Amino acid sequence: MNKQGLALQTSTGDLGLAFVDYQGKFYYNSWDLGRELADLLQEILAGFVNKVTSWDKLDFLAVSLGPGSYTSTRIGVVTARILAQQLNLPVVGISNTELLAWEEAKRQQKQAVIAVEMPASNGDIYGAIYKSYNRGMPLEEMKRCSGMTPEKWQEILEEYKQKYPEGIVILKSPAKLAYTAKYLLEISQLKMDNQEAKTTYNWKNLLPLY
């Protein structure tokens, strides 16, 4: 049986909300809020939930952990922690690099090695590498998301190019990621299938990636 879930993507300043119902149907909307994110989030979130379901019918939550804007990411993670605690729900935190790799894996529909890079402070790069398998399977994290110099990232890419001569896909993150809210739900459902959700995905374990 499918679970009903709510996802929040706030890490790039634009707000993305997504909901999946028991029939597997997705609902999604986005708002380019910028500096108004903190002021308008609660009102928009309440209105969205009231349109698609009710708080007591949710089975899980999902949220982007970043990397992204420090303030925007923190707002999303703190909101998800509070909701999960108050509603006694599991909450799955997923990095933006995994969301972008998941999007590419859906496009590829075959086994692939996917490298994702995002801008960090001081000209550094957040980089992570994933391997996708058959459609509907979770991604394998081969290189964890971390901040590094562009030179170090290029060294890592060269290493993986040699290891996988058939080629790797290299992605650069777009500036706005609200649209990935649906992917938060898709990945979360897979991750919870074989886990004790309320233990593994407890709100106390939810930490942002800046």
Write up this protein.
The chain is α/β, with parallel strands linked by helices. The chain has two domains: 5-95 and 176-205, Nucleotidyltransferase, domain 5 (2-Layer Sandwich), CATH 3.30.420.40; 96-172, Nucleotidyltransferase, domain 5, CATH 3.30.420. Helices cover 37% and strands 27% of the residues. The chain contains six helices and nine strands, in the order E-E-E-H-E-H-E-H-E-E-E-H-E-H-H. It has helices at residues 37-52, 70-87, 96-108, 150-163, 181-193, 197-200, and strands at 5-9, 14-20, 26-32, 60-64, 91-94, 112-119, 125-132, 140-148, 169-172. The strands form two sheets. It has a five-stranded mixed beta sheet, with helices on both faces. A four-stranded mixed beta sheet has the order 8-7-6-9, sandwiched between helices. Strand 6 (112-119) and strand 7 form a beta hairpin. The longest helix has 18 residues, at 70-87. It is globular, with a radius of gyration of 17 Å. The chain starts with a strand and ends in a 10-residue tail after the last helix. The mean pLDDT is 93.
Secondary-structure map:
Elements: E1 5-9, E2 14-20, E3 26-32, H1 37-52, E4 60-64, H2 70-87, E5 91-94, H3 96-108, E6 112-119, E7 125-132, E8 140-148, H4 150-163, E9 169-172, H5 181-193, H6 197-200
Parallel strand pairs: 1-4, 4-5, 6-9
Antiparallel strand pairs: 1-2, 2-3, 6-7, 7-8
Descriptive labels:
210 residues, alpha/beta, Nucleotidyltransferase, domain 5, 2 domains, 5-stranded mixed β-sheet, 6 helices, 37% helix, globular
